[in-house]
Each structure stands twice: as C-alpha cells, then as structure tokens.
Write a structure and sequence with these properties.
The chain is of the alpha+beta class. The protein has one domain: 2-Layer Sandwich (Chloramphenicol Acetyltransferase), CATH 3.30.559. It is built from 6 helices and 11 strands. Strands 1, 4, 7, 8, 9, 10 and 11 form a 7-stranded mixed β-sheet that branches. It has a two-stranded antiparallel ribbon with strand order 2-3. The longest helix is centred in the N-terminal third of the chain and has 18 residues. The relative contact order is 0.19.
C-alpha cells in the first residue's frame, strides 16, 4: 500500500468535493410529475434499441488496459497539438487506431460487419460509428473509410463529426452504413459500461474513463497506473466468446504497444 499512499501524498486527490445536502421536497404540486412526449429522435433511438435487444443474442466481455504510454505521449503533445491545429487532442483517435489495428487481423474480421437474413456479411473496410451524446439524444455519425486515414486526419474528422452531431448538422449519408461502433462511457466518468449493438452490426466497443488505479507490478509490489476499462458486446449468432475475447485482447495489445513514433501531426 506504500505506493498508493505515496501517490496520494504526491498530488493524488484524496479528498472528495463537498456536496451540500437539502432536506426539502424536490418539487411541489403539479411540478411533482412532468409528462414529456418522446421526440422523433428519442422514438427512433427507442425503436432501434428495442430491435437490437429483441433480435440479437448479445454478450459482453470486459477487460482492463494499461494506458500509461498513451497518457504520457498525449500529455507531452496535447499543448503543441492544440497550438498547431486549434483542437483538443482526446483519447478517441487512439481508441479508433487500436480498433482498426485489431480489425486488420483476419482472425478478427468477423467482428466488423452485419448480420442480415441469416447471413454474416464480413466487411474488410472500417466505417466507424461514433456514439455522440447530443441535447436531443444519442446520435451515431459514421466516419467512412476510417481505416485509410492518418492520425491527423482521423483526429480532425472525429472532432468535426462529434461537433456537428451535437449541433444537428449531419447529412443523412453521415449516419448510415457503419460497420462497427465505438461508444465512450468515460466521457461521463464511468469506468465500465454494457453497450447495446447497433443493428445490423455485430459488435460495439465501449471505453471507460482513463484514471489512475492501484495495480500489481513485477515483484509483487503495488503501484498506480492510468488504466481503462474496455467492453465489447458481440452478436452471438455471428461470433463466439473466444473470438470476441481475442478481438478484445487485440485492441488491448494495440493500445498498450502502439508505435507512437508513427503519429505525425
């Protein structure tokens, strides 16, 4: 425990933020119940998710990833990146690069595609769906041809898609034909999540918050590293647990061992 205690003493935030309490009712009178009809977008989201749960036998696998190298590289480059390109350098491009790297392996190809009419359509290109939280509800813009983009283009295109999704400025072509989807639970601070597949796709990847946690180090010591929870929900009609586990392990290997010297911007 000494390593953990040293981390806290050296700047880890050990004291939680004070949250004031109130002992009065949340609302009174007619305001105690508010009836809000679903918007058109909310209805579409509900219909799609109900279809997903009704038609797809879904299983989720979880694992944890050491993000030390990527956190260090991002910390060293994020200010210069922002100065040069006027945009924040988030973790999302790294997640996407790792997913694409894993999908390049033919053994993982069955996780990227669609299940329609009893047939699995394996797609050897990546149109990545990116779940974005907008004021009206979840929007999933699609970054077509993500597997052919360099680091800078990928970073800029992801930021642009996310911004326009939140501002309701997407064209119809930008929300269709996804082959696999990424959703980032970490944006809300969640460590893990159990995502629901976006049909007819056969897999969705969820990423949790990147945060310091106590881990076992070589020699039996305890230490603190930035880690992240990864979840993959897969369609059990198209893949079995071993295939999904191998895909998850491939994403972890890509994130932990990525050749960061190739990231030009």
């Amino acid at each position: 425990m000494r390593d953990v205690e040293q981390f806290i003493a050296g700047g880890g935030d050990a004291s939680p933020r004070s949250v004031p309490l109130s002992f009065s009712p949340i609302a009174k009178g007619e305001e105690r119940e508010v009836h809000k009809p679903f918007s058109r977008l909310r209805k579409r989201i509900a219909e799609n998710l109900m279809r997903s749960v009704r038609e797809i036998p879904q299983v989720t696998t979880f694992l944890e990833i050491d993000m030390s190298r990527i956190v260090s590289w991002r910390d060293a480059n994020k200010d210069h990146f922002t100065e040069k390109h006027g945009a924040r350098l988030t973790f999302t491009p790294f997640f996407v690069l790792a997913i694409i790297a894993a999908l390049r392996d033919p053994e993982n190809a069955r996780l990227n595609g669609a299940c329609e009419d009893g047939v699995l359509i394996v797609k050897r290109y990546v149109n990545l769906g990116l779940a974005v939280d907008s004021l009206e509800g979840l929007v999933v813009p699609v970054l077509a041809g993500a597997d052919g983009m360099g680091f800078l283009e990928l970073t800029q295109r992801l930021a642009d898609l996310g911004e326009r999704a939140r501002g309701k400025n997407l064209s119809p072509d930008e929300v269709k034909d996804g082959t696999i989807t990424l959703t980032n639970f970490g944006a809300s601070g969640a460590l893990y999540g159990n995502p629901i597949i976006n049909p007819p796709q056969v897999a969705i990847i969820g990423t949790g918050a990147v945060s310091p946690r106590a881990v076992a180090l070589p020699g039996g010591r305890l230490g603190v590293k930035p880690t992240m929870g990864l979840s993959i929900t897969f369609d059990h009609r198209a893949n079995d647990g071993m295939a999904a586990g191998r895909f998850a392990a491939s994403i972890r290997a890509a994130l932990e061992g990525m050749d960061l010297s190739q990231l030009e911007y």
